[in-house]
Design brief:
2% strand, 46% helix, two-stranded antiparallel ribbon, mainly alpha, Cytochrome Bc1 Complex, Chain D, domain 2
Length: 457
Amino acid sequence: MGLLPSTRALAAAGLASAVSCGFVPDRPTFSSEVSADTRAALAEADVSASDVAAARIGGALELYFGSPSAPGYHLTDAWIEDERDPGDAWWELSDEAADAVRDGNERRFAAQIRAVRAAIEAGAAALPDLPRPLRGGEAQARFEAAFAPLVAGEVELGGLHPDSPTAADASEDDPSFTWGDEALRFWESYYPTLEESAELFRTRCLFCHGPLGAGDGPTGRTLDPRPRDLRDGIFKWTEVDANRRPTRDGLVRLLQRGVRGTAMPAFRRLSRGELEGLVDWIRYLAVRGETEQLSTYFACEEGDVRPASVERAYGTVWGRWDEAEDHWLAVPAGPSPAEVTAEVVARGAELFRGSLANCASCHGTNGEGDGEAIWEEGEEGERRRRLDRWGQPSHPRNLTAGVFRGGGRPVDLYRRIKSGIGGTIMPAADASLTDDDIWALVHFVLSLSRTGGEPGR
């Protein structure tokens, strides 16, 4: 069963009440402590001195992921050679995403940008006091630290910045730039650091997802469905093949859209830079959690924690995230509205209820989420719902309600059917199903919905 509107409203009200009373969670806490699952796995595998092994894995996590005050990534030799630091993800953005960040900054820091531009155009020697940006304490602090000589009046706005080539070396392709140019560039191209994104996560996401992304925040423990446990890197509603790591753009769109029928809101008021920063922190939590899990697995297999195995885990996990774009699921063109005939919908119904697509086994003959395949025999012989990857009872979507958590556009439903839903009992489509078959299923599912889908979502 999805989260009832009344339940969602109560959760939101409780969160609003906590904020209005001045309660803000502590900063995310990172230490050499490993999860209870890691300790249990090491003890069960009878790893020699399991407490010591757990401490070694915790120490390795701190080596690879930084300290509580300075989160970051251990740079591999290949990254150093390529001048890549995943902790500074600005350089990973596509041209389109980078332009969207700059466009967002034009609105987010409009007052600061206007003030700097006006001072430059007026030929002012000093920078005027800039208005403090809304929700921008971290940006303000970084600006004041980076431009301390300018703020203090020790240098002039038109003077060459220390990183500028000298006027004699400057050319049309490599112009010199001043302190004013750099101040303008700071606000126009502002991108949050990993630590700043951790702070945004703390104030916006920690209530539900918890400090380490385990889905165990103070509000999250009361919700149904439970917030995602980010630590294993499996995300349900992505634009890639099932159980593959999501792309950056896919996670940004998920944050912008939210998840209907759950307590996961749409973060439409955040700028694109802030959304990209949240993606950086979500990825950090996921990579850290996956590395802990895989290092634990290797330790259980080998009977000890070996540095080479932890390094292998770190590289393997990063490989999964780096190849995300390779698994992006392109959607072929579907039928136009005029081509969605009764015959197309009837073909979808036949597939839905037949043995090839076999959707009815879980979703039920009429799509109400009441199929027999969702049940299994429990340890005590009781009849219970099958569990998902996170140990939660499975509740296949009631398709007649018109609430599609991964988005209700035809393209969204195509992806759900084609690649399944990671971590759940929803499998990928049988390889023998053609594109036309999947589109027929999409339009039959939409025909079941009382709303007929969600145009524009």
